[in-house]
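Supplementary Methods S3. Input chains for the assembly prediction are listed below.
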Amino acid sequence: MKIDRSRLSRFTALRLFAPDASTSPELGDRRSPFLGRGLEFADYRSYDPADDLRLVDWNVYQRLGQVLVRQFHEERNFAITILVDVSASMGFGTPRKADRAAELAAALATLALHRRDPVTLCTFGGDGPPNPARATHIRGLGSLVELLELQEPGGHGDPHDHLAIELARGTSDRTILISDLLWEDADRDAVLGLLASSRRNPTVIHVLSQDELTPHLEDLVSVVDGETGETFEVREGADAARAYQRGLEEWLDRARASCRAMGIEYLRPPTSEDVHSWVYGMLRSSRIVERTSGTSA
Amino acid sequence: MTIARPLAWIVLALAIPLVAAYVHRRSQRHITVGSAILYRAIASSTARRRGPIFRLRHPFSLALAVAALLAGVTALVDLRRPNDHPHDTLVILDTSASMGASNTAFGETRFTEAIDRLTLELANLGPGDRAALITSGAETRVRVEWTHDLTQVLQATEGMTPSGSSDSMALAFALADAMAERSLDARVVLLSDGVGVPPPRMKRPLEYAMVGRPGSNLGISALALRELDGFGLCEVFLSVVADDPDVVEVDIDLRVDDTLVDVIPVPVRPDGESGYLHRLELPDGQRLHATLGLHGRDVLAIDDTATVARQAGTIVRVLLITSSTRSFVADALRTHPRVDLTIVGPGEPTPTAAFDLAIVGAELQGRPLPRATKLLAFGVDPTTVGLTSPGPVKDPTILRWSFDDLRFRFVDLTTSTLGRTWIVNPSTDVLSLVDSEYGPLGVSYRFEDRDAMYLGWNPADSDFVFQVSFVHLIGNAIDWARHFPVNDSDTIDAVVPAEESQLDPRPSISGTTPEMLTPAQPTSPPLARVMMWLALLFVAFDVAFVPVRWALYTAVKFVRIGVPMLWGKVAEALHLPWFRRKREHT
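Predicted structure tokens for the full assembly:
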């Protein structure tokens, strides 16, 4: 997949928006639900022999005679998992959906790693097993980008099985699935259900090409499914164009409704904009990312 | 080569919708999409038609179909190379006397060469082609009608000998034209030496295959016999034609029934014709043979010999209407041994009896014409004998006369002063015999069921009566009116006509195209049939394209997968070490 590395630096002014407490194991600058070392006092508790004596509040001990240990709100990083669909269907469109998905994933990884938010990137849906990579520092961005660049869309793997393997490996504060969702309704719902049940803040970025939204149906006789090889003939004329648009809208509505029903944030970037506009526009307005000067919730 | 076949154009027109359908088909797209899920909404519930138009799967298929159509068109229009034979060939074979001329030093005649050319022509025809044969000579007729049996044409020429003249060649052309009408692409070939052949007037182009070779010629061009008296004295007229400037004099042997009676030295005019008169006694019914000594360079030896018989003529009943019983005409008639003369003077009524010849030498003055099969009138008002005239003229100059007409044999009009002469208006019903600067003054025509000849001058008023030509003219008129036994007619034809003796320079017949006969080609299927078979092959391959592709795919799959699988099973069954090693490795 193609990624313009030179343009990745344009996303450093953004960072991931954390809708709630971060749960990453790595310490960071995000508020987390964990109590431990930090700057903001949270509570006292009784001293345990293994506690650090530096945490004992000696004033309380002198005043009350009880050995209490001070506890602080621990700050962690905002972990993000990016799942990129590399099935054969992602290889279609102009530009290819896979390329746009890769650029989007690289942009998210860039802005996350720039703020030391750990990123787990995983490609799935191809012929092979899911291919994960993880980075916690900006120095690891190259390996992630390289993983994306080496991947080419192709094959027709089972997305549910692939995601089940990957989602069982750990946790993240936000999981972003970038896919065209061109699966059968039941398969799609299964994948979305798995995503919703496995991770916090699941998000689906639905990538479609302009060819799929407004196809050129004139003189079209038959279509062949690039993944399954399914072939059938199609109708001709304006009626067919209207029927296609109607079917597309219904299909999008079903996908959007499934996401909404499962608590998944559904985003479908417009095909007319580039990735930069997506990130700064749609993702920012959807509070997936925010400017660095912004405030955390 | 012809493309004038409507069916061919129709077949060719089929290519237009075929190509249009292909172009339309090419514009239809078969696309591969990321997923067919989105397109199911417009999936066709019914399968598209699988007609021939929609079977165009590949440009190769279009190429095959168009090639099949072109091959079919080619087969229909029968595109031939120029040396290919046509379907029908009509041969006009010249069988006139000149075709019997010696053609080579080995004695081959032009006729045998023509037969060889005919054989070659027939050999070049293919199976299914037709041929027909017309011969023209002493007898002009259709020898063989259109037939596929080519041997029948050759059989018709067996035993045929050249004789007669080429005068009836025009009839042969007319017959050929009529026969060619019954064929779509008949090719008409004339096999002739070209001697005496008139220019053809045919609707079809005529290919002229000339036989013979050029060369000098010397021969008897005319031999005629005329009675001088009733006791057997005859006058022989000999004419010798020469196309050789070196010949000065030749000897001609005259034989009467194989008995040499005389040897006549005839001076020959170089590159021209020379006549010679000779008198001899010849009993009635005997034949006179004239033989020219063979000339080394002569290519037309057949005219070296001529035969003529003294014809046993009958008494000719002649009625002379004259203004004076002592006229020159009456005296000339009285001296003729075969004439039964009746003279009608001025004021005497016309006899009612029938005559062989009526000579009108004076105005009829209201009297009816006598009953006679032949009518000769001279010096009278043409309107009284069924002609029209602008009037008489004084001393016309004779520009031309039909010296080859039997009625003007031995007649010379070049030195005569005619005096007052009536001119006849020319028309399509009269044949001019003598022409002057004022118009015809001697014609031949039909008048009231008679063969009539009119001469516009009166011999008695001119110096014509003082010339021997006058006696010859009267004698010729008697011969014209005589009845000859039917079986003697062939003796007249035995004389080679003068025009048959002329050979050099090589005759060229205007209106014909030179025919270049090619050597016999090895028998091969005609191009049309080959193209038709190719068309069928193309179509068959096109139809079988899908099964063939499936068969190739299956074969390749079997070789790549099936064969190793079978080999594995065999190796396993036989416990071959190769299989054990592979299994251990696995």
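The interface with chain B takes residues 88-93, 97, 180, 182-184, 209, 211-212, 215, 217, 219-228, 230-235, 240, 243-244, 246-248, 250-251 of chain A (CB under 8 Å). Chain A is about 35% helix and 25% strand.
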